[in-house]
Amino acid sequence: MVMAARYGLVLVLAGFLLPAAVFLCVEGIGMKMQLERAFPTSHGVPLSQLRERDRLRHGRFLQQSSPNGVVDFAVQGTFDPFAVGLYYTKVLLGSPPKEFYVQIDTGSDVLWVGCKSCNGCPTSSGLQISLELFDPSGSPTANLISCSDQRCSLGIESSDSGCSDNNQCGYTFQYGDGSGTSGFYVSDLMHFDTVAGSAVTSNSSASVVFGCSTTQTGDLTKSDRAVDGIFGFGQQSLSVVSQLASQGVTPNAFSHCLSGNNNGGGILVLGQAIEPNIVYTPLVPSEPHYNLNMVSISVNGQSLPIDASVFQTSNNRGTIVDSGTTLAYLAEEAYDPFVNAINEFVLQSVRSFVSRGNQCYLVTSSISETFPQVSLNFAGGVSMILSPQDYLLQQNSINGAAVWCIGFQKIQGQGLTILGDLVLKDKIIVYDLAGQRIGWVNYDCASSINVSTATGCCCDGGILVATGPLFYLISSVEVPFDFISCYYPFLYFSD
Prior knowledge:
Residues 87-441 form the Peptidase A1 domain. Its main location: membrane. The protein is built from six helices and 37 strands. It is mainly beta. The strands form seven sheets. It has a 15-stranded mixed beta sheet that branches. A five-stranded mixed beta sheet has the order 18-21-30-22-29. Strands 16-33-36-35 form a four-stranded mixed beta sheet, with no helix packed on it. The longest helix has 18 residues, at 47-64. It starts with 8 loop residues before the first strand and ends in an 8-residue tail after the last strand.
């Protein structure tokens, strides 16, 4: 019998349609209560009457619960660096609302778009999208953020924030690829559709602070993959996720599922995706990025000879989840053992060679049958399982043989490991900011997902399940009609 003193009160709900019991957890002394059916099975109550009773009951849940809703963003783009090499979405800003295409970036915090009279902002895009510039003077709901505004001080968390001579709160961002942008902060309306239970509210809006970029440098000036700006999904106070959560508009969580097929696209939702097989690992506290405690790497089930300190978070070390990075990067001390293990496994099956510093292979059969499975192992005993498609990139072909190269790159002289889109694709990734954890599960991102407005879980180790059978499909997001509970299918409680 498993001791579970933390999980005090257990309500065993006799399900009318499902035989499985649902356990709700409250701190206290262990006890068990048996509840009677409102409608015994012998009464033959019509299904329509049961549905109506459930509808009223669900309505009470919605009234008593948080006003949070779910916001769904359409995703475009692909991870393929030879095609697009980024994922982006569309946001509606200002009055009247204008469309802006912005890159999805979990490695930064602030939403910013190009501003009127911008120096270096591209005017056309190879992505076949129409670019816009935001004009604060053309939106009656726009307000410039002054230096005395408390929100200006919040910008210091996310950027080099400063004040101009005219008391305007400005910012400067420098990105890892050498590109940069600067401008000033403005507040205006963001428009979106929200879903809360059975209610779909169109034309919802909330005031958010975002950046109005007046200067761009580096790759941001190039038109081949140009977008209007960057949508930072970091956890600092000026991220849109944090702003909307603090206003009670959305949960303090978001989820994405980036499709790895040729068509790309995927799902991005402000809310917590729920799937039975999602596993979670804690976020490293007090870090500006989404740092995880990776403890080891396994190839074909064999742990690599890498000192665990290589992955520990410290100055210029650690493991970061970043959707704004196209490939994936390993700390210098981990890269060579990783490549060597792959080489040893495929030594008899393929011809290997080095091209422009990258380890490549000539492959005449399926890579799924030729290359090993890789496991990234994290704190809490959970792993992210990578198929060959999650660490290899196809380059071209030579005499009928496909050329595949390892997509993981080495960061010279640094101890950072960065998990970019190469690894994140074809998975639901959940950023539970309220619970300070990140979860994932392999998934077909062309399918719909279940999303909850709840964050975290009432009990450690439990599985989030929707207790109501009805779901409402908005775009590619299924929103549970009923509430969410913690479910322990094999948990016993001591007296």
